[in-house]
């Protein structure tokens, strides 16, 4: 078992950090808070590295029993951690990127009065997220699932004095709850069928229990997809994520880009056997991903708030992951999660540094010219942006996105439409990324830089920038040279994608096409925003309705307000003094009345007490004679 | 009595020796600390001499049965007594000049309780009970200058004597009908019947009355709040744990021996008592403002719950009773320990207002109280939850659905008044006078109790195994 048996330390350390900060954070000095907050996650990351090394020398599936509560009758609730290649990749990203973001926050949040609260929530989030991906059964997974939801809520509304932030937090919480409810029903369905919520048990029993394509398998998979869509901000539950940017920027980087929002991807990949059983569910996953990546990509083109651009881009990139899951390219989805975690965290952290440097200015059109003023931020941001735009050959984003496009086209479950959606998405991505970089870093300096980031902010940027480039080379296409580390690594856990026969020979054509599309997108961006000044204003004026529609995220907010929010608030108002309440107040009233009646017997008079005993004795004797 | 018999009774003999030594020490010179240390040493030595499990069971004449059930509960009682002794020192040190006699009564009361849990004969049953009761009269009224002290003592004296008469008469009736007073002999007599003769049934009923008074189950409960309120806090802790626990174990032994639950009459009687205790105990506590009275009502309700497992009376039921007693002992001792620590020399900290804002003024103590209250309410990850879960399991395994459902409903009602105390402690703090300095013994006891409560809640399997090995029926 070697080092792997210390796996329980990984979630425990951040938990201890959180508990310590919640209990005693009020009285701690900032350096101590920072060392507990960042230190616990750092130690956890070190543990993961040690475990990872041990794991690589002996890859296997490890079940580590942490705690068994009681054994009364046939009930034996216990906590088991499950480590395989898939969860190892996730815990590596969570702890490693998590640590870098904690480190960044030490400086970023330095002036904030809620310092301890911030790190407590962030630590708790890391712990919950680790539990989510390490859970051996769905109950523990659900605990982590709700834990990250709670932390997300707390951190979006971190600056709670502003009611807008509270609103955003509630919106995120309620919309993801919709998905969670679907998922919970799915869990009940699984439990009813398999009489267990252990993931291994379900996955090994499902193929023999449910026929390929049976409707109950479809229902179960779609219910899980509901939960995944809520958490991962996919259609139709995607509209909470842009508002979630109300939280501090490190939170956006860690929770709303790198880790939590990919929980849905993890869930579907983990339960892949269930989805493989239902072609309908697989297609749905793919279509959801394709549509989401397009609408979010178009919205990203029109945003003016730096963080909202990145938020829409996150939705769009997770759409790519869903697309990959939908065509059965499991490893490709996880690979894209892996590269995306690095470059998107990097972009958010860079955005945070910019916003901080410009007196909390969010509008990119009031930025500009930052290339010279913030050189480190510029270079690292450029690395992240290139990766996001999938600049051919040198960036990780290229390799992971290329893999997805390849399977969307060539995979057995792929289709032309999904492939075209992915290709159009690539064009759009390159376009809005170029727009973002040009508007922010080039041209006139509209706002003066007031403060430059220190080493604790630039160091994570540098590390993440390096990784954004390097991790791509872990998995390069078949026709380049042989280095399929990621899919080889995940091979034992996730099924390999099947591709149509005879199509491999055309892989280079696809790569060329993807590269041309990306470069085309970059060129259009350059042409519109740099080479011909004023052109983008012209385009905007030409199609005002379309622009407004994209800017508002395709009107989903308005639609949901009309369809759900208004009726529900109306119902709530209509049933203000409702009958249901009457039951509960009635119970309370009866209890109080009974209390008044019986309390008169406790009058302190001893004759009365003696009477009680005599009456009791008489009752018992009477019972004895009668019964 | 053979040499072996004496070895098996050594723990009990040590207690009597301790009582004599304390008496002699007081006669020579009054020194509170010396007497206190002597008391603790007595208990520790007695614990040391507990028989080894391998040699069990052993009958000492016809009077005593030293078996797993007896030894386990002797141990629990002595440990609880040790905790009460540790609390008592701090309590009486600040309140009373003549403290020595308290410890003598205290050791004797513990001795009585320890006799009860190993008795296998009506004579030892009654003698144990009376040694316990007579010592308690003195202990309850020990702080003579207090307002309600005498009242509580007299009330307990009269009512206990009254109910003892019932008990004795019940025993006499049974003896008249069967000509036997050993549980073993009665077991043979009872197994011959499918339906009990009225004389015997009346006898059993009157024994239940006598025991019911000690357990303070409805309708024999009315003395409980008055006595808890008037008695010093450590004595209230003693009554609510040791006195009740010993009686419960004795009842388990008696009814297992006669296989009482074969008879529907007995089942009906205990079902009615159980339901009445749960409902009345919880409802009376609802609007109560006095913390000691709340704990009294809570203990009434808890023995109603406990009877669910008692009625089950199978292997799981006996396990459940023992586990429940351990959890209940630790919880009640913790709760009364907090009351003890917070009490002023003039009056005990018994009003809800005494606890307002406690979480801010004395966070550690408040945390202890919160844990004990959560355990009383049966919130998961405390010993109280596992204990209650055990009761439910044994109730369900014997299909006592009515009792099980009422247990759940009453647990919800109970939540209200436990959580209300917690809420009061969360209130904003008001300025209050400095509190007397604490005693190390108190804090160590509370710390250990809280650790146990959480430990048995998080990882109860160890304790369950111990109980299973020792107490397992058959």
Properties at a glance:
heterodimer; A: 627 residues; mainly alpha; two-stranded antiparallel sheet; 26 helices; 71% helix; B: 474 residues; 19 helices; 2 strands
Concise summary:
The complex is a heterodimer of chains A (627) and B (474). Chain A is mainly α and 627 residues long.
Description:
The complex is a heterodimer of chains A (627) and B (474). Chain A is mostly helical and 627 residues long. Chain A has helices spanning 9-24, 30-57, 85-108, 115-134, 138-156, 163-194, 199-209, 215-231, 249-258, 263-270, 272-276, 279-302, 306-326, 330-357, 370-373, 375-389, 396-410, 416-441, 455-470, 485-490, 507-531, 535-542, 544-551, 556-574, 579-599, 606-626, and strands at residues 62-68, 78-83. Among the domains of chain A are: 278-542, no CATH class; 575-626, no CATH class. Chain A contains 26 helices and two strands. The relative contact order of chain A is 0.07. Chain B has helices at residues 3-28, 32-48, 68-93, 100-118, 122-140, 149-178, 183-191, 198-215, 223-230, 233-257, 264-285, 291-312, 315-342, 358-361, 363-377, 383-397, 401-426, 440-458, 461-471, and strands at 58-60, 64-66. Chain B has a two-stranded antiparallel ribbon. The longest helix of chain B has 30 residues, at 149-178. Classes of the chains: A mainly alpha (627), B mainly alpha (474). The A-B interface holds A 67-73, 75, 591-592, 594-596, 598-599, 601-602, 604, 606, 608-610, 612-613, 615-617, 619-621, 623-625, 627 and B 155, 158-159, 162-163, 166, 196, 198, 201-202, 204-206, 208-209, 212-213, 218-223, 225-226, 264-265, 268-269, 272, 280, 283-284, 286-287, 316, 386, 389-390, 393, 397, 413, 458-461, 464.
Shape summary of chain B: globular
- Rg of chain A, rounded, reads 28 Å
Q: Count of helices of chain B?
A: 19
Q: Residue ranges of chain A: pLDDT <50 for 5 or more in a row?
A: none
N-to-C order of helices and strands of chain A: HHEEHHHHHHHHHHHHHHHHHHHHHHHH
Distance between the termini of chain B: 27 Å
Distance between the termini of chain A: 64 Å
Helix content of chain B: over 70%
Discrete helix count of chain A? 26
Strand-and-helix sequence of chain B, N→C? HHEEHHHHHHHHHHHHHHHHH
- Main interface: chain pair and counts: A-B, 34 and 47 residues
What structural class do helix, strand and pairing data of chain A support?
Answer: mainly alpha
Would you count the extended β strands of chain B for me? 2
Would you report the number of β strands of chain A? 2
Strand proportion of chain A: under 5%
| Main sheet characteristics of chain A | 2 strands, antiparallel
């Amino acid at each position: 078992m070697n080092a792997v048996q210390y796996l329980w330390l990984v979630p425990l350390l951040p938990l201890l950090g959180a508990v310590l900060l919640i209990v005693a954070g009020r009285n701690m000095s900032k350096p101590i808070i920072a060392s507990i907050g960042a230190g616990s996650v750092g130690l956890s990351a070190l543990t993961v590295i040690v475990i990872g090394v041990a794991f690589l020398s002996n890859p296997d599936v490890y079940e580590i029993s942490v705690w068994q509560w009681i054994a009364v009758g046939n009930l034996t609730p216990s906590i088991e951690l499950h480590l395989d290649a898939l969860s190892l990749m996730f815990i590596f990203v969570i702890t490693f990127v998590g640590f870098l973001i904690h480190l960044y926050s030490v400086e970023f949040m330095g002036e904030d009065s809620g310092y301890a609260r911030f790190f407590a929530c962030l630590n708790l989030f890391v712990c919950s997220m680790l539990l989510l991906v390490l859970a051996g059964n769905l109950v523990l997974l659900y605990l982590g699932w709700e834990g990250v939801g709670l932390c997300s809520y707390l951190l979006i509304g971190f600056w709670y004095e502003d009611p807008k932030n509270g609103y955003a937090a509630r919106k995120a919480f309620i919309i993801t709850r919709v998905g969670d409810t679907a998922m919970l029903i799915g869990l009940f369905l699984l439990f009813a069928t398999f009489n267990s919520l252990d993931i291994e048990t379900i996955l090994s029993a499902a193929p023999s229990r449910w026929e390929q394509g049976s409707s109950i398998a479809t229902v179960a998979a779609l219910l899980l997809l509901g939960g995944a869509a809520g958490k991962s901000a996919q259609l139709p539950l995607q509209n909470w994520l842009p508002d979630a940017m109300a939280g501090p920027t490190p939170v956006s980087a860690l929770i709303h880009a790198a880790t939590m929002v990919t929980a849905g991807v993890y869930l579907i990949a983990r339960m892949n056997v269930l989805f493989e059983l239902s072609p309908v569910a697989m297609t749905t996953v793919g279509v959801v991903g394709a549509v989401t990546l397009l609408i979010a990509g178009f919205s990203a083109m029109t945003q003016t708030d730096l963080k909202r651009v990145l938020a829409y881009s996150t939705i769009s990139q997770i759409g790519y992951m869903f697309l990959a899951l939908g065509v059965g390219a499991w490893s490709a989805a996880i690979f894209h999660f892996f590269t995306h975690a690095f470059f998107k965290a990097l972009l958010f952290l860079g955005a945070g540094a910019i916003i901080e440097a410009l007196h909390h200015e969010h509008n990119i059109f009031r930025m500009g010219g930052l290339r010279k003023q913030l050189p480190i931020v510029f270079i690292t941001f450029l690395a992240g942006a290139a990766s996001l735009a999938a600049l051919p050959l040198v960036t990780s984003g290229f390799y992971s996105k290329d893999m997805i496009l390849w399977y969307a086209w060539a995979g057995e479950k792929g289709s032309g439409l999904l492939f075209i959606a992915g290709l159009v998405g690539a064009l759009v991505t390159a376009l809005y990324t170029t727009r973002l970089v040009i508007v922010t870093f080039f041209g006139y300096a509209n706002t003066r830089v007031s403060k430059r980031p220190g080493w604790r902010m630039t160091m994570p940027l540098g590390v993440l920038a390096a990784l954004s480039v390097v991790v791509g080379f872990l998995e390069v296409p078949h026709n380049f040279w042989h280095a399929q580390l990621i899919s080889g690594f995940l091979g034992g856990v996730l099924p390999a994608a099947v591709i149509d026969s005879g199509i491999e020979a055309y892989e280079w054509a696809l790569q060329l096409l993807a590269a041309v599309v990306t470069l085309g997108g970059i060129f259009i961006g350059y042409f519109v925003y740099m080479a011909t000044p004023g052109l983008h204003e012209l385009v905007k004026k030409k199609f005002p309705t379309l622009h407004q529609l994209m800017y508002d995220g395709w009107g989903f907010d308005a639609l949901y307000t009309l369809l759900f929010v208004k009726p529900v608030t109306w119902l709530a108002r209509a049933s203000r003094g409702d009958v249901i309440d009457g039951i509960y107040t009635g119970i309370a009233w009866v209890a109080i009345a009974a209390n008044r009646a019986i309390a008169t017997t406790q009058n302190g008079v001893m004759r009365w007490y003696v009477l009680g005993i005599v009456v009791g004795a008489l009752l018992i004797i009477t019972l004895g004679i009668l019964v | 009595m053979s040499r072996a018999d004496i070895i098996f009774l050594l723990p009990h003999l040590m207690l009597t020796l301790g009582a004599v030594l304390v008496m002699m020490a007081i006669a020579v010179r009054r020194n509170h600390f010396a007497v206190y240390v002597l008391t603790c040493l007595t208990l520790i030595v007695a614990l040391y001499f507990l028989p080894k499990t391998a040699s069990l069971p052993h009958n000492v004449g016809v009077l005593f049965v030293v078996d797993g059930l007896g030894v386990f509960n002797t141990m629990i009682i002595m440990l609880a007594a040790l905790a009460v002794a540790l609390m008592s020192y701090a309590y009486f040190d600040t309140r009373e000049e003549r403290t020595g006699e308290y410890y003598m009564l205290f050791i004797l009361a513990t001795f009585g309780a320890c006799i009860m849990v190993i008795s296998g004969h009506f004579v030892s049953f009654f003698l144990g009970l009376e040694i316990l009761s007579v010592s308690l009269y003195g202990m309850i009224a020990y702080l003579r200058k207090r307002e309600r002290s005498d009242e509580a003592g007299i009330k307990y004296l009269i009512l206990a004597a009254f109910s003892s008469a019932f008990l004795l008469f019940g025993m006499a009736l049974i003896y008249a009908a069967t000509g036997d007073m050993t549980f073993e002999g009665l077991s043979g007599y009872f197994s011959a019947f499918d339906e009990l003769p009225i004389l015997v049934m009346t006898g059993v009923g009157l024994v239940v009355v006598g025991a019911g008074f000690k357990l303070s189950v409805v309708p024999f409960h009315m003395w409980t709040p008055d006595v808890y309120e008037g008695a010093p806090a450590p004595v209230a802790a003693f009554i609510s744990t040791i006195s009740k626990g010993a009686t419960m174990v004795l009842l388990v032994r008696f009814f297992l021996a006669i296989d009482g639950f074969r008879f529907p009459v007995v089942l009906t009687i205990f079902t009615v008592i159980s339901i009445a205790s749960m409902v009345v105990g919880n409802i009376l506590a609802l609007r109560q403002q006095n913390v000691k009275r709340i704990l009294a009502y809570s203990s009434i309700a808890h023995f109603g719950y406990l009877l669910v497992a008692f009625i089950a009376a199978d292997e799981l039921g006996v396990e459940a009773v023992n586990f429940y007693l351990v959890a209940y002992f630790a919880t009640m001792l913790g709760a009364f320990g907090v009351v003890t620590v917070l009490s002023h020399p003039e009056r005990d900290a018994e009003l809800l207002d005494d606890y307002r804002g406690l979480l801010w003024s004395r966070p550690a103590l408040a945390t202890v109280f919160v844990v004990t209250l959560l355990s009383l309410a049966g919130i998961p990850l405390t010993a109280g939850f596992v204990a209650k879960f055990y009761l439910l399991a044994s109730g369900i395994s014997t299909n006592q659905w009515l009792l099980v459902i009422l247990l759940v409903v009453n647990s919800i009602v109970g939540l209200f008044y436990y959580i209300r105390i917690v809420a009061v402690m969360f209130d904003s703090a008001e300025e209050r006078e400095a509190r007397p300095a604490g005693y190390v013994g108190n804090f160590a006891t509370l710390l250990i109790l809280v650790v146990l409560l959480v430990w048995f809640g998080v990882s109860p399997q160890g304790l369950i195994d111990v109980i299973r090995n020792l107490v397992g029926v058959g």
